[in-house]
Amino acid sequence: MSFLFGDEKVEAVLFSPLEGKITYESKPASGAVLKLWIAWKDQDGETKNFNTDENGNFSIPIQTIEYRSSPLAQISIAQIITVEYNGSEYEIWKAGKSSTNLYAELGGRPENLVCELTKEEMDTHLDSSLLETLCVWTNLDKEKD
Amino acid sequence: MSELTPPVAATLAGRIYDVQNPMLVDIFLKLPYFMFAKKPGASPHSHLKAEVGGRVVLNFKDGFGVCAHGGKGYENEIFLIFRGTTTANKKADILTDARIGITSNSAGLPVHTGFYHCFSSMLPDINSFFSANKGNVKVVHCIGHSLGGAVASLAADWVFRTLKHPTKLYTFGAPRVGTDWFANNTTSSLRKENIHRVYHRTDPVPMVPLYPFMHAPYHSEGHYIYSAYPLTSGTAHFMSNYTDSVKKKTWEQLCDVPEQPCIIENAIEGWLKSKSPVNTSSATFWRWVDSALIYVIKKVAMGTIMSLQTAFVGAFTLADKIAYILAKGIDLAEKISVWIELLMRKLMQALGMKVTQNKKELTHSLIRGVLVRLTEKANQEAQNALKKL
Q: What is the pLDDT of residues B348-376, one digit of tens each?
């Protein structure tokens, strides 16, 4: 029936593309495994793995879904990235967001991103979402791709 | 007593949705309003877990609200922030929303069964949060959007009544939480100036449940905001649209005047008598229906010396109760029964049903049938997601 709302299928960005370098004691961490966990429709979530190359570089492509948007149920997305390297696990990224826009995590695309696994404390970024990360970057590109 | 500005209240009601998972609460509490922001790890924030869902079918648990101490600029202030329905707990919540029964709260006042159940499941945690707090409490801010606003309303009422702390309530697009008697009572305890109810003209959620559910502040239009989104799209309900609407505004600036106040008796009688077509997809129609129901039920109550509060509390559904009251009214004097006839005709017309021509055809079961369809229609506008599950 036409007056029923919430029938609209929309695309939601669950995770915006992220590329950068993983380092361990400032040296490229090659062969590290990034485990990206995303939850939105329940709290169990799903995990995908990505590997770094010989220079420690990684690239996580955009993760999207199509879902039925309803004003009565706000989408809410959790993201966690852990890195497995040399038998140890490091949490490098922990975020919660309720916007489905591209780059809503930070309000822009981070450039020259480096995640040093031995860094002691995560930085907090609250302007656009709830984000804590070990990673640092030189600049946020606010031009949306 | 300090008061949050509309943008701050809206930010908190919106940002609580970022907390998809309890492990994100710690980051939420680093927002600049909270104590955690300056002293990591030092404050006794307690995270609330609510039982959302039917008592039998689903015993779904999900993070649902946060109690927190105010930080710099908000010293000695307490925040109770509640979240509305999310995609992760949709099924459970809709059951809560759909349970439109009436229960008595701890003060004996009639409130919505589902909202009250949700609130009472969080109450032990709220209680221990306050017991653990040794400091002076200047004010308690209760905040929420949608279902979160309904829970915030019950929380504000409880905090003020039980703990006697100065309390302020801020809701966005919240449904009606209690009946006439609850709305009236909570307005006199919290006081009208401490209740900020923000709603868009075409947000369907604040229109339900229908009478005898009423909004607090009682006999006040609240912070009405003009909106052009069609009622049937539900777009006006999104928290992000409320955040946009209140940007850089003060509470005084958030007071558009609703068109045609439907509380004037002459106007209601005029609407009931008019032959003009009615349309269930217009926001104005639901305002009229609500006022007309109140008007006609009160007429019957006066004619029968019936206590409405007694009539509404009990085991039957609301449609049953209202049908009972109206069917009683049909047998009363012409000056009363004529209004029931006019109301039923109006509703049948709006619902696309065959309109009765004769008073005798208006039996209890027909009246009940019309009211059931009306309630379904109202809930459909506001809760269509229910139909999809």
A: 988 888 888 787 888 888 888 888 888 87
Contact between B296 and B370 under an 8 Å Cβ cutoff? The reply is: no
The amino acid sitting at A19 is: E
User: B13 — contact with chain A (CB < 8 Å)?
Assistant: no
Strand pairing class (B167-172; B139-145): parallel
Q: Which residue has the tokens 């299928």?
A: A9
- For the stretch B186-222, pLDDT in tens is 999 999 999 999 999 888 788 777 777 889 998 888 9
Question: B114 with B92: CB under 8 angstroms?
Answer: no
> Is the CB of residue B351 less than 8 Å away from at least one CB of chain A?
no
The 3-state DSSP class for residue B356 equals coil
Q: How far is B64 from chain A (nearest CA, A)?
A: 12
- Summarised one tens digit per residue, pLDDT across range B238-291 is 999 999 999 999 999 998 777 655 556 777 888 888 888 888 877 778 878 878
B-chain CB neighbours of A73 within 8 Å are 85-87, 90, 93, 385
pLDDT digits (tens, 9 = 90+) for B67-87: 888 888 999 999 999 988 887
**What local confidence, expressed as pLDDT, does residue B43 receive?**
39
Q: What share of chain A is helix, strand, coil (3-state, %, to 5)?
A: 0, 55, 45
Instruction: Provide the 8-state DSSP code for B364.
Output: H
Q: What's the maximum distance between 2 C-alpha atoms anywhere in chain A?
A: 60
For B3, the token pair is: 């008061």
User: Chains A, B: CB contacts under 8 A, how many?
Assistant: 119
